[in-house]
Design brief:
Layout: E1 29-33, E2 43-46, H1 49-56, H2 65-74, E3 80-84, E4 94-98, E5 105-111, E6 121-128, E7 132-135, E8 144-146, E9 158-163, E10 166-172, E11 175-177, E12 188-190, E13 227-231, E14 233-240, E15 243-251, H3 261-264, E16 287-291, E17 313-315, H4 328-332, H5 342-348, H6 352-355, E18 363-365, H7 415-432, E19 436-439, H8 454-460, E20 468-472, E21 475-478, E22 488-491, H9 494-507, E23 524-525, H10 531-537, E24 542-548, E25 552-556, H11 570-586, H12 597-616, H13 625-628, E26 629-632, H14 640-644, E27 651-654, E28 663-670, E29 673-680
Parallel strand pairs: 1-3, 1-18, 18-19, 19-20, 20-24
Antiparallel strand pairs: 2-3, 4-5, 5-16, 6-14, 6-17, 7-13, 8-12, 9-10, 9-13, 11-12, 14-15, 21-22, 21-23, 24-25, 26-27, 28-29
Helix pairs in contact: 1-2, 2-9
């Protein structure tokens, strides 16, 4: 507290209120699956379909992931976390740039992510000299060169020095003097820094950052003649299937330069922890550059230029999708032990395990465990155009584009393997208690075969969880790949369902059942469900997707796969998940607070205010707030024995709003008029024990 020495009136602001509780975002989906490109086993936040295409490529016959994400955004989704999976044999295409003889590797140019898509890339490297100047004769010393201009030269600039009849020499500028560091006011390029501590191989700070400068006297030239000094940098041109996609200018070979190649085109690093999710660029760079020189050797061993022929096209090779050896383990990973090394942790953090650390995810789907791979045939070339000999010759025809590289296809997983993945999905949701698993039926159960609906009922019987929901059947969408076999493709419904969840949460709230809304970007269902079949599926917790005459295709079910009637509905489960997470996040301030009546009153106030706002939004039932919820945090449930042990207990009870599945209309005549009343089959109990 401040100490006051002078008499007077002082104003102090004391905030006695506790931080308010805010509702948690519940519309973020997590997808795990197969993509054409993109980082492996890393959660990438995606906020649009175009951003997904930039990071993970377009549609592919080897996976359903692109279809699911497209369906998510088409149906109202705004943000999702995407994890691409592949086996350990997946590799990125690469090419090596070498230095002068004896040849040694300098830079490794690689596609930014594994996959055969990298084999479609090729690069062209051009050496440029953007800054040039002349060293004045008879006015230089071995430690520096007096020059006509220093424009374009900075500390760390890689330069080439040449003189008539002499072989060129490569050096690194240690410092630049614009005329302020010498009496004559001459402009100088300094080869040996005036401060010994700033010279090469000096440990510059506590992080042991090694600086790379030449800092050797300039020798081997005639001091009576001018020396041509040119900066050395490189322009990297990247093409995909012969089409120009990127141009990188001014790349330097020197690690301390601002345009150092491996720094400009570095690997994408994403940290998923308690901090806010990173904001990623709209599109990643197609390639990365990695240093291949041994920078611990003397600078003269690696300071030379790249040995590339002008306009020589260098293809990237060695890319592999790694899908043929895809396993269930790649989808589910393994629990990480605190004693595991970084290498072991990286091996275990795969697929679903990656999403465990992304706490904003509220729903999880793995559509590609049901994959039915489809090889996309290459498009036949157009027939040649035969010009009319009577007409004058026209412009030359455009170049024929290169055919895309074709990768391997994943295996078809058995029902036992599918169940293993979906069981892990439900287990993760039950453990974290902040997300729900969207289950897709197997392909055999999603088509009208001899078993009818028996297959999907048998599949439903495998699960009993309040944190999972099953949707049936699959959906038929227009296939953008336009394969010769069919113009449509059957895909799992989880992407469409996740989009409906997100749209309902944003427009109304998590308390609204995500059902009875038209699905977008769908042509048909794989199995048409009538009222009789729906009457069999709904009681056992299978949410039907039905085409309704004049109303489109809609989700007509909102049940979990739980046998507990208290957790029958998806919106009830998700509402309680949101409340629990919001309270958990927003009441951490109470830790280490005095366990007295003031702290209990603050906690009671913020909990009551939060639940009151939910009741006013219609998330809780009851004609009055007292019927919708209660909060207890007083001396009755916090006796002295508990307070002495540092415990503080707050009890919260809510009456969540339940959807009207069955609405009964009674039509009768009274006083020469028709009277219509609505009755529901649902009832709930007041806090006083009476029924309504």
């Amino acid at each position: 507290m401040p100490v006051y020495q002078t008499p007077g009136v002082y104003y102090e602001r004391v905030d006695a209120s506790a931080p308010a509780i805010a509702a948690i975002r519940t519309d973020v989906a997590g997808f795990v699956g197969i993509a054409a490109r993109g980082p492996l086993h890393t959660a990438i936040p995606v906020q649009s379909w175009r951003q997904f295409q930039a990071y993970f490529g377009d549609f592919t016959g080897a996976g359903y992931l692109a279809y699911a994400v497209r369906a998510f955004f088409e149906n109202g989704g705004r943000r999702c976390q995407v994890v691409r999976v592949a086996s350990d044999v997946a590799a990125a295409a690469e090419a090596m740039l070498q230095g002068p003889p004896p040849p040694h590797d300098i830079w490794r140019i690689a596609a930014f992510s594994p996959g055969v898509w990298g084999n479609d890339l090729d690069i062209t490297v051009k050496e440029t000299h953007r800054a040039q100047t002349l060293a004045a004769p008879n006015n230089s010393m071995p430690e520096y060169s007096a020059v006509a201009s220093i424009t374009g030269f900075t500390r760390g600039t890689h330069v080439r020095l040449s003189q008539d009849g002499r072989l060129p020499m490569w050096k690194v500028i240690s410092d630049v003097d614009a005329g302020e560091k010498n009496r004559a006011g001459a402009k100088r390029l300094i080869w040996v820094h005036e401060k010994p501590e700033a010279r090469r191989h000096y440990w510059i700070d506590a992080k042991k950052v090694r600086r790379y400068y030449d800092d050797t006297p300039l020798t081997g030239f005639d001091p009576s003649r001018s020396i041509l000094i040119e900066s050395v940098e490189y322009t990297l041109v990247v093409r995909e299937l012969g089409r120009l996609i990127r141009v990188y200018e001014g790349l330097s070979l020197i690690p301390d330069h601002a345009r150092y190649g491996p720094r400009v085109l570095a690997k994408l690093e994403i940290l998923q922890d308690a901090r806010p999710a990173p904001t990623l660029p709209a599109a990643p760079e197609p390639i990365v550059i990695e240093e291949s020189r041994d920078l611990t050797k003397p600078l003269a061993d690696w300071i030379g230029p790249l040995t590339v022929k002008p306009d020589l096209t260098i293809p990237l090779t060695g890319g592999a999708d790694g899908l043929a050896l895809l396993r269930v383990y790649d989808f589910i990973g393994e629990d990480v032990d605190p004693l595991d090394s970084d290498t072991v942790k990286a091996q275990k953090q795969r697929g679903l395990r990656v999403l465990e650390d992304v706490r904003e995810v509220a729903m999880v789907a793995v559509p590609d465990i049901h994959i039915q791979p489809r090889a996309i045939p290459l498009q036949a070339p157009l027939p040649p155009c035969i010009p009319d000999p009577c007409l004058p010759p026209g412009p030359p025809p455009p170049a024929v584009p290169r055919a895309r590289a074709v990768g391997d296809l994943p295996p078809v997983f058995s029902e036992g393997e599918i169940y293993q993945v979906q069981a892990v999905m439900a287990q993760q949701c039950e453990t974290l208690r902040d997300r729900i698993a969207l289950l897709d039926p197997p392909f055999a159960a999603a088509r009208d075969d001899k078993l009818g609906i028996g297959a999907v009922r048998a599949w439903r019987s495998r699960f009993d969880s309040t944190y999972a929901a099953l949707y049936y059947p699959w959906l038929r969408v227009v296939d953008p790949l336009r394969s010769g076999a069919s113009l449509t493709r059957d895909i799992p419904p989880s992407g469409h369902v996740a989009g409906q969840y997100a749209q309902t949460d944003v427009q109304i709230g998590v308390h609204k059942a995500p059902a009875n809304t038209p699905l977008v970007w769908t042509q048909d269902v794989t199995v048409v469900i009538n009222d009789d079949v729906h009457g069999v599926l709904n009681p056992v917790g299978i949410n039907a997707i039905r085409p309704l005459s004049g109303r489109g295709i809609r989700i007509f079910g909102a049940r979990t796969v739980s046998s507990d009637p208290d957790w029958r509905f998806v919106n009830v489960r998700r509402l309680l998940m949101m409340i629990e997470k919001a309270i958990d996040v927003s009441t951490q301030w109470a830790v280490f607070e005095p366990n007295d009546i003031v702290t209990r009153a603050k906690l009671h106030l913020v909990l009551t205010s939060f639940l009151l706002a939910l009741w006013q939004q219609g998330a809780l039932m009851g004609a009055a707030a007292s019927e919708a919820f209660f909060v207890r945090c007083d001396e009755e449930n916090n006796p002295a024995s508990d307070r002495e042990q540092g415990r503080l207990l707050a009890e919260v009870g809510v009456a969540p709003s339940q959807p009207f599945e069955f609405v009964i209309l009674r039509v009768g005549r009274a006083h020469n008029a028709f009277e219509i009343t609505e009755l529901t089959s649902l009832a709930w109990r007041h806090s006083d024990g009476s029924d309504q």
